[in-house]
Amino acid sequence: MSTGNILEEIIPRHILEKLTVVELKKKVVFIPLEEQKDIELYYILEGKVSCFTVDFNGREFLVDSLGPGEFIGKFSQMRNMNFNCGVRTATDCKLLRLTPCKKELLSDKNFSLYFYLKTSDRVYEMYKLAMLRMLFPSNEVLAYWLLKLAKDGTNIEEKAESICLQTNISKRQFFYCIKNFCDEGLIEKSGKQINILDKDGLKDIAGNVYLFMNENKKEDPVC
Fold this sequence. Notes:
The chain is built from ten helices and eleven strands. The chain has 223 residues and is α+β, with helices and mostly antiparallel strands. It has two domains: 103 residues, Jelly Rolls (Sandwich); 80 residues, Orthogonal Bundle (Arc Repressor Mutant, subunit A). The strands form three sheets. It has a four-stranded antiparallel beta sheet. Helix 6 packs across helix 9. 20% of the residues are buried. This is Crp/Fnr family transcriptional regulator.
């Protein structure tokens, strides 16, 4: 089979021929919160998925968002733990299912090196995001996130629920900050859409968050 990406160079051909591509519609939970006897492992070819967990009060938290070129599976359980995270499709997706050949793949030197490099980078990014939520007040985090979502323009159509999940800001705090931003003339809100009126003003509020998130990056994602 052909995946049209770097995996064709890494996975031995005799293993690659055993793998299948799975196509899933949006909002399908394909990895459950519960522990799995046979741990599923996928590689994202097309689309986006969301890794989530639920607290003791039933509130859902977004743990990670992933797109093409990323591995997804219960990595904590692979290390004899279970962080009780599930995975659902955020868009229609095309996934390469690696589960049937997982042991063979992880025993292959080239594949295992690539796999652990990719997943280690993600752990760092998740740790950085967790620190962001602890170090900065909600208005600074939200200002940064709005600029990030609108980096190609000034219009944001992302739902409030989605932004709250991504930033771990409560809905109450979200709408409080949005009202303040509107009162200050930084944004305007029409129905579910948010329009940025003053990018520089939001960037002033998000300044410390921007420095923290992009200290070692050359590109400016919010300009």
